[in-house]
Amino acid sequence: MTVSCKLKTSKNDSNNKSKNKSLQTKIVVPELDGAPALSEAAEEGESAGDRSVSVNPPPSPSKKSGLGMLKGLPRRVLSVLSNLPLAIAEMFAVAALMALGTIIDQGEAPDYYFQKYPEDNPVFGFFTWRWVLTLGFDRMFSSPVFLGTLALLGASLIACTYTTQIPVVKVAKRWSFLHSEAIRRQEYSDTLPRASLQDLGIILVGAGYEVFLKGPSLYAFKGLAGSATGSFKGSVTVPQGLNFVIGDVLGPSGFLSTPSESFNTEVHVNRFYMDYYDSGEVSQFYSDLSLFDLNGKEVMRKTISVNHPLRYGGITIYQTDWSLSALQVIKDDEGPYNLAMAPLKINGDKKLYGTFLPVGDADSPDVKGISMLARDLQSIDAIGSTGLDIKTDPGVPIVYAGFGALMLTTCISFLSHSQIWALQDGTTLVIGGKTNRAKGEFPEEMNRLLDQVPEIVESTSSTRSDNFSG
Amino acid sequence: MIFSTLEHILTHISFSIVSIVITTHLITFLVDEIIKLYDSSEKGIIMTFFCITGLLVTRWIYSGHFPLSNLYESLIFLSWSFSLIHIVPYFKKNQKFLSTIIGPSAIFTQGFATSGLLTEIHESTILVPALQSEWLIMHVSMMILGYAALLCGSLLSVALLVIAVRKNRKFFFTSNHLLNLNGSFFFGEIEYMNERSNVLQNTSFFSPKNYYRSQFIQQLDYWSYRVISLGFIFLTIGILSGAVWANEAWGSYWSWDPKETWAFITWIVFAIYLHTRTNIKWKGTNSAIVASIGFLIIWICYFGVNLLGIGLHSYGSFTLTSN
């Protein structure tokens, strides 16, 4: 009756490790080294074990010594980049820079910053326009400081993927047995004297683990089973009935931008109209567009509205805006005459357009006339212009693939993945385990499971003991 | 007319039920033995859930679109999400922590939504052209569910911090002054946790106090982590669906609009939280500090940016030509 189960924290672990190391030499089983798959698997397990191990690599592989100097530098860079505190600091830096980018008004002329952050009255005692302009904070999201921090974070992510995530996936894919030393090095480790591997296996299966037994070793896991391109942008405001050529509107916005054939397409605005709510507010606006190729043949016709863009040959046309271009006036049953309308600036976000109809002699110095205002196309004869955004971005599928991958991996990482190794050494059972989630609870779960392992009493078969301390 | 009356009734019922629930909670803090009272507060939260659900459905039928087009509706939806988290069976095992957090949170959002501060936006407004999309339901509901879960989780972390700090303070025999300051700063919600820890101290007077305390801290840590992980998934889906929608409506999936930027900052802060959790040495207090920062940042993202009323997400006075 000597089985002891402890509630272990990390500190306990490190203490026990040093104690256990003295024991280790006694427990080494000779037949283990002969077993074929073990050494390779153990190596992988070790590299996956924790990050700090990779800094001082295990001594077993001897072939690396020749290339040690060459391999040392990338390895050191990797270990620096995959350092968790560094990555967290980088994330904080990115967050802080973005917050700063929303606080400082973006994209203004330098004069604006001279006034807002004057040198004789600095914000927080040091922050002046010099900071803003030197560090490029007036255009934060394309400034070298911000992009550099992002790139550093990206490098850290790649390094972390290389050093930590990939080995984890490898280990998850193939069930691997560890020898006793490697088992002890796991986050959780315990030794049960007088216990049987088979009993442990049965209990683990009962707790939902996939269990693999091979000779004196056991492996179990739960959870995850094997688990900018160039673009063009442009916007245009076209009165109803007029045409434009797509290529004229688009300007390159990436360094790899090359125009395509569909740039020669001509767009004709057949009609522009709006829908209104009963209260008179604009509910939706529509443009009836026809696309003509170089030969003047109509290749496509579609009515677009906000949220329902038109897609043709890699080009997307979005309905984003509208305005009034002309008011139609009928005079003495003649006409209609088109009076050009101009937007008027008023407070608030409501649009207002105005025009002036001269009455009498237009050449006389004091022109009389009627000024006419219009809010939208309701109950007037006016020609509306449609505001279109045109974009071609071949990178969108890649970005969407990234979105999909991010969503998938976020969901997967929510699932936990726990692994357990165990080794029978005579009547003693060496058990190690680790998990990617719920690190605090895993030892508790393990202790609870190990409590159930029946003790082997010398003469009789296994009986369930009941005086453990938790 | 009948709709608005119904809406009125439902709002008031849900608000009063939450108030009663909080009162019963206070009583159960003081007198731990009354289990029946505790049961009734459980039922109260479920009642609240159905009331707010009814309220949202009423608004949906009445206005003809998904009721998430302005701040008032999103606040109602936020308190609905709080009560939803509460009744999800996954978290059933640990209702005591969550209901202490959820009750006050729900009453604050509900109270703020129905208070006089926001009267002018109570009316269900028309849907501007850019919002007329199926993505509205997906994007906004995911974002607000994410906010609700993250708020719950980070409040649990704040509670953890308060208890941990309290422990140290007790050790040095210093005053409670700073703690009170903290309490009032977080809208008094922590006071409940304080009270809870008080009860804990009283009841565990003769038992090894520190053992219970560390158990309690561990529990808080575990649950805040669980809730935040869930909220993080919602937030990720919400941000990404928003990006896809923006690509449909505005022709660009990311435009560094203040709301987008702050949502991204929130995402990064909680990503930091999840990363601090992978290091066993940083667990507990350090990750709780990150989560508490996240708590403030969610409020900046949710309210602060709206108060500025700039950018593409200012739907109170929305026009499409804002850029």
TrEMBL record, chain A:
<dbReference type="InterPro" id="IPR007816">
    <property type="entry name" value="ResB-like_domain"/>
</dbReference>
<feature type="transmembrane region" description="Helical">
    <location>
        <begin position="77"/>
        <end position="104"/>
    </location>
</feature>
<feature type="domain" description="ResB-like">
    <location>
        <begin position="86"/>
        <end position="225"/>
    </location>
</feature>
<protein>
    <submittedName>
        <fullName>Cytochrome c biogenesis protein CCS1</fullName>
    </submittedName>
</protein>
<keyword id="KW-0812">Transmembrane</keyword>
<dbReference type="InterPro" id="IPR023494">
    <property type="entry name" value="Cyt_c_bgen_Ccs1/CcsB/ResB"/>
</dbReference>
<feature type="domain" description="ResB-like">
    <location>
        <begin position="375"/>
        <end position="446"/>
    </location>
</feature>
<keyword id="KW-1133">Transmembrane helix</keyword>
<keyword id="KW-0201">Cytochrome c-type biogenesis</keyword>
<keyword id="KW-0472">Membrane</keyword>
<feature type="compositionally biased region" description="Low complexity">
    <location>
        <begin position="17"/>
        <end position="26"/>
    </location>
</feature>
<feature type="domain" description="ResB-like">
    <location>
        <begin position="228"/>
        <end position="325"/>
    </location>
</feature>
<feature type="transmembrane region" description="Helical">
    <location>
        <begin position="145"/>
        <end position="164"/>
    </location>
</feature>
<dbReference type="GO" id="GO:0017004">
    <property type="term" value="P:cytochrome complex assembly"/>
</dbReference>
<dbReference type="Pfam" id="PF05140">
    <property type="entry name" value="ResB"/>
</dbReference>
<dbReference type="GO" id="GO:0016020">
    <property type="term" value="C:membrane"/>
</dbReference>
<feature type="region of interest" description="Disordered">
    <location>
        <begin position="1"/>
        <end position="68"/>
    </location>
</feature>
Automatic annotation (TrEMBL), chain B:
<feature type="transmembrane region" description="Helical">
    <location>
        <begin position="44"/>
        <end position="62"/>
    </location>
</feature>
<keyword id="KW-0934">Plastid</keyword>
<dbReference type="InterPro" id="IPR045062">
    <property type="entry name" value="Cyt_c_biogenesis_CcsA/CcmC"/>
</dbReference>
<dbReference type="GO" id="GO:0005886">
    <property type="term" value="C:plasma membrane"/>
</dbReference>
<feature type="transmembrane region" description="Helical">
    <location>
        <begin position="223"/>
        <end position="246"/>
    </location>
</feature>
<comment type="subunit">
    <text>May interact with Ccs1.</text>
</comment>
<dbReference type="GO" id="GO:0009535">
    <property type="term" value="C:chloroplast thylakoid membrane"/>
</dbReference>
<dbReference type="GO" id="GO:0020037">
    <property type="term" value="F:heme binding"/>
</dbReference>
<comment type="similarity">
    <text>Belongs to the CcmF/CycK/Ccl1/NrfE/CcsA family.</text>
</comment>
<comment type="function">
    <text>Required during biogenesis of c-type cytochromes (cytochrome c6 and cytochrome f) at the step of heme attachment.</text>
</comment>
<dbReference type="GO" id="GO:0017004">
    <property type="term" value="P:cytochrome complex assembly"/>
</dbReference>
<feature type="transmembrane region" description="Helical">
    <location>
        <begin position="138"/>
        <end position="165"/>
    </location>
</feature>
<feature type="transmembrane region" description="Helical">
    <location>
        <begin position="261"/>
        <end position="276"/>
    </location>
</feature>
<feature type="transmembrane region" description="Helical">
    <location>
        <begin position="74"/>
        <end position="91"/>
    </location>
</feature>
<keyword id="KW-1133">Transmembrane helix</keyword>
<dbReference type="Pfam" id="PF01578">
    <property type="entry name" value="Cytochrom_C_asm"/>
</dbReference>
<keyword id="KW-0201">Cytochrome c-type biogenesis</keyword>
<feature type="domain" description="Cytochrome c assembly protein">
    <location>
        <begin position="68"/>
        <end position="313"/>
    </location>
</feature>
<feature type="transmembrane region" description="Helical">
    <location>
        <begin position="288"/>
        <end position="312"/>
    </location>
</feature>
<keyword id="KW-0150">Chloroplast</keyword>
<dbReference type="InterPro" id="IPR017562">
    <property type="entry name" value="Cyt_c_biogenesis_CcsA"/>
</dbReference>
<keyword id="KW-0472">Membrane</keyword>
